[in-house]
Write a structure and sequence with these properties.
Number of helices: 15
Bound molecules: zinc ion
Strand content: 15-25%
Largest sheet: 9 strands, mixed
Strand order of the largest sheet: 2-6-7-10-1-11-12-13-14
Radius of gyration: 30 Å
Number of domains: 3
Structural class: alpha+beta
Number of strands: 16
Distance between the termini: 75 Å
Amino acid sequence: MNYETVIGLEVHAQLTTRTKIFCGCSTEFGRTPNSQTCPVCLGLPGALPVLNRKAVEFAIRTGLATNCRIAPRSIFARKNYFYPDLPKGYQISQYELPVCEHGWLDIDLGDGQSKRIGITRAHMEEDAGKLIHGETPETAGSSLVDLNRACTPLLEIVSEPDMRSADEAIAYLKKLHQIVVYLGVCDGNLEEGSFRCDANVSVRPFGQKEFGTRAELKNINSFRFIRQAIEYEVERQIDLIESGGKVIQETRLFDSGTGMTRSMRGKEEAHDYRYFPDPDLVPLVISPAWIEEVRATLPELPDAKRHRFVEELGLPAYDAEVLAADRNLADYFDACVTLAKDAKSCANWVMGEVLRKLKETDTEVVAAPVTPELLSGLLARIADNTISGKIAKTVFEQMWLSGETADQIIQAQGLKQVTDTGAIEGLVDQVIAAHPEQVAEYLSGKDKLIGFFVGKVMQASQGKANPGMVNQLLKKKLQG
Ligand SMILES: [Zn+2]
């Protein structure tokens, strides 16, 4: 039988507010355990939570960028369960009335096809603390509790079960990831857990309307592992059904060592958590004016950027995709175009030399020693034929190391391209005179040898002759 895969995703994006969602403690990562705590995030009796305005603003930003309706009034609820990293015995979350609902994202399926993935809701909640399991001899066999992360703001973004393959799931996640990072509301670090994904996966025979029983996959911290986990899980469920078994609703952990998922616990239902409105927090009321204020500060998003790069700057779709993928890279490219005008040559240089060098030296684009100003200075010298594209690459290397301008390097090293016809003619004559055999072959119809002659002349000029002129003069002289 043929099966169809059904996937829905829940993403927890940690919001990059300076302080926690219900208290003033710092959210800085990696500090001494329990040094960033107070009575509120420790869950001490009588301590009252106060909502962080910035976290709400970030939720609105994300909601607007994912085409959600922002609720004029939403409610915080207590999700009750016990775990040692949750001192209050409940997590403050949103249940019945979340801050964002009914959104969508369009994902690219390649070859110009796109698909709309629904976003059911996005709600704000607090994170739990962290357990550290006996890492030193003194603590072997016991677990330690670090509450620095407790009460850190999260936005949980829940998709509709609209995805039908691991490819679609990855496309959706990458798009959402790109958006929250563009918005500056989340640092997007999967390994540190600031962008976490749980996948609800089920299969059903093709043509069947009802969904199959789903498993919730957890503990997946890279895009590659998400694909592996989904693909493994789909196989497992199909094998199970084919061999007469039944998929049960459960939570499964992905093990990146084995590439397999294993059962962790039976999946609880929402009613198990005994959600009820938190009496310590008033309803969250968001005015239309506030929404408009936030909307006005939204940056140009990846889709709009890609569209502009293609429609207004005339870039190929592939270039637009690469350049718009990262907001800082796109800003760098935009700055170059503003200065150098020629968008295609800026794109070639940014995607070629600049990206290569950033990777090679493990540098962030904002810290690139060759700034857009310096790069456009180099491009200007190629455009006005002062140097060839080839020499420009060595100049670029030196600019990267020294931070000097292209003009300074060209001047100091005498790299100015030879465009004087007389000088080039002299070299062309020398090369022709030195290779009588090749000249004869060329004249007998072996046109390809022109490359050989161009190479020899360029070599003789130490790469400084203008290649176009060399080509032209050679053809003229060889015929003559
Ligand atoms: Zn606190």
